[in-house]
Amino acid sequence: MGSDYFAHESCYIDDGAEIGAGTKIWHFCHVMGTARIGRGCNIGQNVYVDRNVVVGDNVKIQNNVSLYKGVVVEDDVFLGPSAVLTNVVNPRSHVSRKHEFQQTLIRRGASVGANATIICGVELGAYAFVGAGSVVTRDVPAYALVYGTPAQQRGWVCQCGVKLQLANDTLQAAAACEHCGHAYRLQDQQLTDKRTEK
C-alpha cells in the first residue's frame, strides 16, 4: 500500500490492498486486503471492494457499489451509482456457497448505468453500454447497447458512448459515429473498430 493515492479518513483500507497512484477513494469505503485497484481511479462514497477483486486503471465507481470476490474490472470502466454485481447464482443464508463464486468480467471501456444488476458469470464486452436499471443475465458483446429486464441488445455504441446508426443489418454494415467520426464494421453480429482491421 503506497501513499501516492488519496483515501478519505472515514475509509478502511486493509493491509495487503494494492492501490495505484492518483486514485481517490471517498467517504465510508472499505477496501479489503488482496484487492487490487489501479492508477487514476475515482471511487465514490460507500463502495466495498472485496478480497481478490481486480480493478484496472482510470475506473470510475460511483456511490453505493459493492464489488464482491470474483469481479474483474478492466481499464476505463464506468460503474454507475448503486450498480449491483453478484457472485453466487442461487444464494441461501443457511447454505455456504463460497466455493461456487463465479467470475464477472467487465472489459475495457464498458459502462454500467445506475441501479443496473449484473448477474455473476457474465462478461461485458469492451465498450459495451448497460442502461440504467437493467438486469444483465448473459454475456454482452463488445460495443453492444443493452437495457431492460432482462437486458436485451438494442443497438451498438461508439467508444465515446454515442449510439451508432448502422446503414443496414447486412453482413458488411458499416457505421461512423456522428459525434467523433470513429468508424466501425458490423460482421456476423460483431462490431469491430476499423482502425484495428488488417
The CATH architecture? 3 Solenoid
Q: Please count the helical segments.
A: 0
Kindly report the spatial arrangement of strands forming the biggest sheet. Answer: 1-4-7-10-13-16-19-21-22
What name goes with the CATH superfamily? Hexapeptide repeat proteins
Sheet/helix structural class: mainly beta
Tell me about the largest β-sheet: 9 strands, mixed
Oligomer: single chain
Calculate the terminal CA-CA distance, rounded to whole Å. 42 Å
Overall, the morphology is globular
Helix content: under 10%
The fraction of residues assigned to DSSP E strands is 25-35%
H/E series, N to C?
Answer: EEEEEEEEEEEEEEEEEEEEEEEEE
Walk me through what this model shows.
This protein is mostly beta strands and 198 residues long. It has a single domain (6-163), classed as 3 Solenoid (UDP N-Acetylglucosamine Acyltransferase, domain 1), CATH 2.160.10.10. 0% of the residues lie in helices and 32% in strands. The strands form 5 sheets. A 9-stranded mixed beta sheet has the order 1-4-7-10-13-16-19-21-22, with no helix packed on it. The relative contact order is 0.09. The mean pLDDT is 93.
